[in-house]
## 1
Amino acid sequence: MTAIASLRRVGLPRLVVHVSVLLICIVWLIPTLGILVTSFRDAGQITASGWWTAFTGAAETSAARLGEPSTARQEGANYVISGSVFEGGQGGTVRAFGTRVAAPTEFPAGQTADIGNGETLTINEDGSYIYSKNAPFEGRGKRVYLSVATPPSFTTDNYRTVLTSQGIGQSFVNSLTVAIPATIIPILIAAFAAYALSWMEFPGRALIIAMVVGLIVVPLQMSLIPLLRMYNEIGNFFGVPSRSYAGIWLAHSAFGMPLAIYLLRNYIAGLPREIIESARVDGASDFEIFVKIILPLSFPALASFSIFQFLWTWNDLLVAMVFLGTGKDQLVLTGALNALLGSMGGKWEILTASAFITIVVPIIVFFALQRYLVRGLLAGSVKGG
């Protein structure tokens, strides 16, 4: 009991919380680290070993063919073929070898193996070999199997391939063109609306607040088609193309507006009333109060919503395909990556490089603004007396 009481005094609950958070972070970071490491490996290494062996080297099983019988030379009563199992610039360290596919590591490197029929074979760590027989060799060169340890090796060719020949570069630009305005537009509109719903008295304000809260739960899939039809009708009336960035900006703004107004209104309503009243006494208009006082004080809430809205628009595929199209010059990054899954399902080096290009921008945005995230989410939850 004394030991338990001592642990409680030093903060056992806090220690449990810290350990739990650490474990959750590790669980989330391991897949991301795996994608990053795999994206810098070549196809052979990915097939031969897991990404966790990339920094220590890995043993890869391969096949090689020894020299042709015509290259044999006679040494006493035996015929000998010698050379190297590494050809075409290949290299590594041979750990073991074998003559059967079922036992590719039957003999350690450097050992002279008796493989029957008067034949012996020695393969050294550097790849050099001596193949001896007590009679002339016949047929083709003998096939052997090797376990080769390769040193750690990384390449940027995967990213070069993705950014140049796979169209990901254009899709990356398209995603930025969609995500940045689709994040800024709803923030600007929602900030004005949140100030009005917090500090301006007008009829129907409570009803509008209730409608905003209700719109948060409206599924995107339910309202997507009606919104598209309405946009096409308005576009045909004004001569606006049906497939344009303006359409997807308005769509993302409409879907993100309810939550933006809700978060910002909670935060703005929790600001000290004395500041607002003092500004009005000094003759400041509502617009001046909003620009000079409310916006600077509301930066945590603005930043927290910016994170969510940017992640939603950056990772979106459905709205982009509906409002922007599926042409090669119109695909956003998620659409291009989805196309790669179909055309290059087995090329993990290309897919992981594409995936990391997709997540690197959201990671930068999150870590740049994460210190404001909790403050913004807790906006309005606690108010002073």
## 2
Amino acid sequence: MSRTALYISDNGTIKWEHGGKLYCLHIQRDSDPENPRNWEGDDTRLTTMACWHRRYNLGDTEVTKGLTPEDFWEKLVEENVSDAEMAEAAMAGRFPHIRISESAEKEGLVTISWLSESGKVVIEELTPRDAIADAIRHDISTEDCLILMEPHAEWMPIWIYEHSGITISCGDRAGQYADRWDSGQLGFIVMLKKKAMKDLVEYVLDEKGERIPDGKRGYKTRPLTEETWRARAIEVMKDEVETYDQFLTGEVFGFTLYEADPVEDDETPDWEETDSCWGFFGDDLLTNGILDHVGHGLQEAIAADNYEQGEAVLHTAPWYEF
């Protein structure tokens, strides 16, 4: 039987036989999982998760501390966009509220016009051509920042749904994240192009669209290109938001592994604890990493549908105070 998923839950069990031994995997929810945004430091993270919430500190809090969303995008522009790029964008008319024209008064000067929403000129200023960026830098809007950052980054909005807890998603706003009362935009997840090109690769896929093993417990890859880096960045951002959502919703698990000798049908095995580990994100046993850690033929037993899935029975003993 070929499975595409095997979902687990708190206090679930999986029993199987291998090599003349009985095994029981007792799965429990991890009550104190590590925040995945702390797995790597600010300088080594692949993405930036910029979130703003009135009651919770979410995402990469050290990045957004003291910043409004507008400040955040202005900071990204300051760190990634050159003066020449900003001036070129302004000269090309890419900012709706700014117009620049050659000065008729003096060579080497330009006229910068700031426009109202209706398109009327509010302020005009003569500026040297090489000082355009300095003149407009503090007047660009968040929409202007997005225009400037487009060649340098890929990003998606993060949506939050709050109802007896919180859960998040990114990309298109759909389902519960479009609820008019209990949902809204939490922030953005951003990946810089230079980070993607440096630290990511593209997986080589076969005719079925599946990754091709490289014979070294990995998969065949190739460097990203101008045509492929955005799609790969989106994959990574979706994965990181999903992992963070699993942390927020408590979908993190651990296990205790027990081993016993075979017994007759009417006997109870004498189970002995042999291993335990915590911090596995996601409720799909086939993808959350538990299988790789457990060993002892569990993967083979699941592939052959030769296992028993159940729930642990908790026994309590009375407490007597003397």
